[in-house]
């Protein structure tokens, strides 16, 4: 199993990216990794640990300040473009992992790899914890700001297929993000998308509000990229604010500090539960002809390890084929109607 990794994408590149790859190689004996980036710098960090790791030299780096489409088109010697070229041209390379510019990763996937036949737009599907012992994904979380009803239908199909693999749940609960649960509520996009999802070969449970996102009653929340990204960032910000306030409150009272010592294990468990990236890696870009996993820009080595393992899992369980099968079932249902 061979995966290409953009060694110079992300805030902590290349050190944390490379160390994450070394962790993956040591853990999985059937894995090979191709690193793209400045050869000498990569070799220096590897320091002789090149077993099943090869390097493809790339002298340029795509930054968040670059315009995504122009960067993919003109920075042909960048670590990300070189990684995409390898993914496109080498059949035995199953996927790509990058913590680089989100816009560039999206642009590269569309321009270099292309979409699964029948999928109108690829979409990002990050995972978040719920208040129950379960997780939820939101699709799309920012790849597509302006959407049509058919895009939301495809997001639902892809999200359902993805969730079923990650959690071994054959029929995950799919909901449509809205400002109310009633079918007649919402903007025109949501109103038109509702019957499409209702008649799709998925377990559609109807509309759900933002407050239901982490309730545990939804497995896949479907949204356009604008609303989905607002929900995701708002949720992350709210969780961060609550944790910050809790920490500040504990430090302000002597008794609270003593109590915190007895609750150390509880706080560690909470921290691990919230750090969903450590468990599941990054966010897959669903709908592409090959697997692409976008990690958070601030990710560390264990996040990279998880993203590599996530790519392996999705390949082993044939995610792309499952999405294609879902499209076939949808087409049959439409023809029968």
Task: Give structural notes.
Strands 3-2-1-4-12-11-5 form a seven-stranded mixed sheet, sandwiched between helices. A five-stranded mixed sheet has the order 6-7-10-8-9, sandwiched between helices. The chain has two domains: 1-119 and 287-317, Isopropylmalate Dehydrogenase; 120-283, Isopropylmalate Dehydrogenase (3-Layer(aba) Sandwich). The mean pLDDT is 91. It is of the alpha/beta class and 337 residues long. It has helices at residues 15-27, 39-46, 68-74, 79-89, 102-113, 149-166, 188-198, 225-251, 254-262, 264-274, 276-280, 301-316, 319-336, and strands spanning 2-6, 32-37, 53-57, 93-98, 123-124, 127-129, 135-139, 173-177, 203-208, 220-222, 283-286, 291-294.
What layout of secondary structure does this protein have?
Blueprint: E1 2-6, H1 15-27, E2 32-37, H2 39-46, E3 53-57, H3 68-74, H4 79-89, E4 93-98, H5 102-113, E5 123-124, E6 127-129, E7 135-139, H6 149-166, E8 173-177, H7 188-198, E9 203-208, E10 220-222, H8 225-251, H9 254-262, H10 264-274, H11 276-280, E11 283-286, E12 291-294, H12 301-316, H13 319-336
Parallel strand pairs: 1-2, 1-4, 2-3, 4-12, 7-10, 8-9, 8-10
Antiparallel strand pairs: 5-11, 6-7, 11-12
Helix pairs in contact: 1-12, 3-5, 4-5, 6-7, 6-13
Key words describing this protein structure:
337 residues, alpha/beta, 2 domains, 7-stranded mixed beta sheet, 5-stranded mixed beta sheet, 49% helix
Structural class: alpha/beta
State mean pLDDT (0 to 100 scale).
91
Helical run tally: 13
Reading off the top of the CATH hierarchy, the class of the largest domain is best stated as: Alpha Beta
- What fold name goes in the CATH topology slot of the largest domain? Isopropylmalate Dehydrogenase
Q: Roughly what fraction of the amino acids lie in strands?
A: 15-25%
Helix content: 40-55%
Distance between the termini: 42 Å
Number of structural domains: 2
**Quick one: overall form?**
globular
Poorly predicted spans: none
Instruction: Please identify which CATH superfamily of the largest domain we are dealing with.
Output: Isopropylmalate Dehydrogenase
Spell out the helices and strands N to C. Answer: EHEHEHHEHEEEHEHEEHHHHEEHH
Give a short account of the largest sheet: 7 strands, mixed
Indicate the radius of gyration in whole angstroms: 21 Å
What is the CATH architecture term of the largest domain? 3-Layer(aba) Sandwich
What is the tally of beta strands?
Answer: 12
In which order are the strands of the major sheet placed?
3-2-1-4-12-11-5
